[in-house]
């Protein structure tokens, strides 16, 4: 018997970083699946990622008993912590598990890879043991653990991959699930520069305490942009969304989370006819998004590649995490 759980990835359309300080963010699930298979094992936790060439065995207390591949513990311990927390919550602490992760989501690039893995792991474990877990409970479990591991995340990543679709998120909760007829046509460009979201969240937190007036002014502008973007999304006004993305990017530059590499790809996309472009996620590297008319899509993608970026192929994912049991 095993359970298989599949989560989408995510792109933040508007409001990253400002959401940590209490603003709204608009975030969209994309169909890059993270697939986690959960099987019962003797007593330890075996975690395997064939894509990364990593494997590790933890004792129930979290000691590393065996490990294969470079920095297997650094990469895979968060999955152990999520699994342990989920088993504890279900009074199944004595169970051993084999957890196999398969994913094409680039790690550390702002597309929610760690949230997708955590959410799939929680959902898969619950399904294996026949526990009904609401989306809210899955989100809470993944988010509460992320708070322990990473300091002060907003939870927007976990919410997006749990619920799917396009969400407006603020202060720990989904405020609205936006029902849209046609999702924005995005091109996602990856700078290939891995970075730590936590580091940039810390940098913005420093600005919030050291320059509160300046920060508040910028955050108020970011909130206004988000509110206008919500309306533009509902009305399918792509041109307005593009110019709001450009405005949002300026604010992200002001709080110091952009980078020359990101700006190189953003400028290339705009010059090739994109309606607008900005970084997405934690910044400092990772990915950018551009919104385009269909007829400019390949030109914009080509320009991003010419500027040194890699295109991440993806489409809107209306569904969040799903899991099932297999004999
Ligand atoms: C990361 O995808 C989004 C950030 O706003 C961090 C967070 O919300 O926890 C940068």
Give a written overview of the molecule:
- There is one protein chain.
- The chain has helices at residues 72-89, 113-128, 135-150, 156-163, 197-210, 212-235, 238-254, 260-271, 297-306, and strands spanning 2-14, 25-41, 45-49, 54-58, 64-68, 96-103, 166-170, 173-177, 186-190, 276-280, 287-291, 310-311, 322-326.
- It is of the alpha+beta class.
- The longest helix is centred in the C-terminal third of the chain and has 24 residues, at 212-235.
- (R)-mevalonate binds next to helix 4 and helix 5.
Q: Count of DSSP helices?
A: 9
Task: Summarize model confidence as the mean pLDDT.
Answer: 96
- Our measurement of the CA-to-CA distance between the termini, rounded to an integer number of angstroms, reads 4 Å
Broad structural category: alpha+beta
Bound molecules: (R)-mevalonate
Please indicate the percent range of residues in DSSP E strands (runs of 2 or more): 25-35%
Contiguous low-pLDDT stretches (5 residues minimum) are none
Q: Helix-strand pattern, N to C?
A: EEEEEHEHHHEEEHHHHEEHEE
């Amino acid at each position: 018997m095993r359970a298989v759980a599949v989560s989408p990835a995510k792109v933040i359309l508007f409001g990253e970083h400002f959401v940590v300080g209490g603003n709204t963010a608009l975030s969209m699930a994309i169909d890059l699946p993270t697939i986690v298979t959960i099987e019962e094992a003797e007593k330890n936790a075996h975690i395997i990622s064939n894509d990364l060439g990593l494997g590790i065995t933890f004792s129930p207390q979290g000691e590393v008993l065996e490990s294969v591949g470079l920095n297997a513990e650094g990469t895979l311990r968060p999955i152990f912590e999520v699994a342990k927390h989920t088993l504890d919550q279900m009074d199944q602490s004595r169970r051993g598990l084999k957890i196999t992760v398969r994913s094409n989501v680039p790690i550390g690039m702002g597309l929610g890879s760690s949230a997708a893995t955590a959410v799939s792991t929680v959902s898969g474990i619950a399904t294996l043991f026949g526990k009904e877990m609401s989306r809210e409970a899955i989100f809470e479990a993944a988010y509460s653990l992320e708070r322990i591991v990473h300091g002060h995340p907003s939870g927007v990543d976990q919410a997006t991959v749990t619920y799917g679709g396009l969400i407006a998120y603020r202060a720990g909760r989904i405020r609205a699930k936006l029902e849209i007829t046609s999702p924005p046509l995005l091109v996602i460009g990856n700078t290939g520069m891995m970075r730590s979201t936590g580091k940039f969240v810390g940098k913005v937190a420093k600005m919030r305490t050291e320059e509160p007036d300046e920060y508040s002014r910028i955050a108020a502008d970011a909130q206004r942009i988000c509110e206008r973007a919500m309306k533009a999304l509902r009305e399918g006004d792509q041109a307005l969304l593009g110019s709001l993305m450009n405005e949002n990017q300026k604010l992200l530059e002001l709080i110091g989370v952009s980078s020359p590499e990101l700006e190189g790809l953003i400028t290339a996309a705009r010059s090739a006819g994109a309606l607008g472009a900005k970084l997405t996620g934690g910044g400092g590297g990772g990915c950018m998004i551009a919104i385009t008319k269909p007829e400019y899509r390949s030109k914009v993608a080509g320009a991003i590649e010419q500027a040194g970026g890699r295109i991440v192929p993806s489409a809107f994912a209306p569904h969040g995490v799903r899991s099932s049991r297999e004999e």
